[in-house]
Amino acid sequence: MDERRAQILDLIGNKWLFIMGNDGNPVWKRIYQTPEKATVLFHFRRNESNTHYFPTIKYAGEKLDFQYKNALIICNEPAWMILGEKLYSFDKKVDGKKLRPFLNKRFIEIPRKVEETYYQKFVAPLVADFDVSAKGFEIRSARFNAVPVLTFSEWHSARPAALALPGGEADDTEDEVAGDEGKILFDLSFRYGKFSFGTDHSTDANVSLEKQKNLTFSTELSGTRLLRSRSSVC
């Protein structure tokens, strides 16, 4: 349903769109789709006892006050939000589930006792895909050009034991396996610094968490995309 809803919303453009009223009036309130996409900056504030997590939204260079304003997330993947009389879409295809908890909440608090698990499973993927502002830990970024690596190896397969088939039919499994012997396998991967990824790797960045004296996210990137730690507030 989200996929279909997003396709419909993309096609609306300047067409008329209404919210139905509680009395069943289908044109109770007109909604206007914004011509530009809004941007989201995710903030993490780490102190001695916990981490505060919250997003800020900007539209056309101005901060959007969306909390406690009866905003509605009407599509999750990607997010579409109604605020006042305007319909907003978002850059980088932000998931609406990442915004929904903050419609009526200032921040989420992550206790220190579950911090490492939370940072590994939630914060690291967020750093890889979106803009993040961090205080209390560091985000280090490095960018590398892709180096293609072609690896080839000899085909090896376990030869199954011959089976007696009903009716005395010959089992040609062994002949099929034998036919694969002598084949060469080719595998293409790409190396970025000390990391290697296969052709099925779909993300632009690899993020790892280093826990030393302070928490550090190391981000290795390819292409033109670059993440950095920012102290300014969106």
Please explain how this structure is put together.
This protein has two domains: 2-143, no CATH class; 147-189, no CATH class. The two termini are 32 Å apart. The chain contains three helices and 16 strands. The longest helix has 15 residues, at 115-129. The chain has 234 residues and is mainly beta. Helix content is 15%, strand content 39%. The strands form four sheets. Strands 1-2-8-7-6 form a five-stranded mixed β-sheet. Strands 3, 4, 5, 9 and 10 form a five-stranded mixed β-sheet that branches. Strands 11-16-15 form a three-stranded mixed β-sheet, covered by helices on one side.
* Arithmetic mean of pLDDT: 78
| Net shape | extended
Low-confidence stretches: 222-234
Task: Please state how the strands of the largest beta sheet are arranged side by side.
Answer: 1-2-8-7-6
Helicity, as a percent range: 10-25%
Q: What is the radius of gyration computed over CA atoms, rounded to a whole number of angstroms?
A: 26 Å
Return the domain count. 2
Could you give the order of the helices and strands?
HEEEEEEEEEHEEEHEEEE
Strand content: 35-45%
C-alpha termini separation: 32 Å
The number of E-state strands comes to: 16
Total number of helices: 3
**Which structural class best describes the helix and strand composition?**
mainly beta
Strand count, sense and barrel status of the largest sheet are: 5 strands, mixed
Describe the structure using short key phrases.
five-stranded mixed sheet, mainly beta, disordered C terminus
Secondary structure layout plus pairing:
Layout (H helix, E strand, L loop, with lengths): L1 H11 L4 E3 L9 E5 L5 E8 L3 E10 L2 E3 L7 E4 L4 E4 L2 E4 L18 E4 L3 H15 L1 E5 L2 E6 L3 E8 L18 H8 L3 E9 L2 E4 L6 E7 L3 E7 L13
Parallel strand pairs: 2-8, 3-10, 11-16
Antiparallel strand pairs: 1-2, 3-4, 4-5, 4-9, 6-7, 7-8, 12-13, 13-14, 15-16
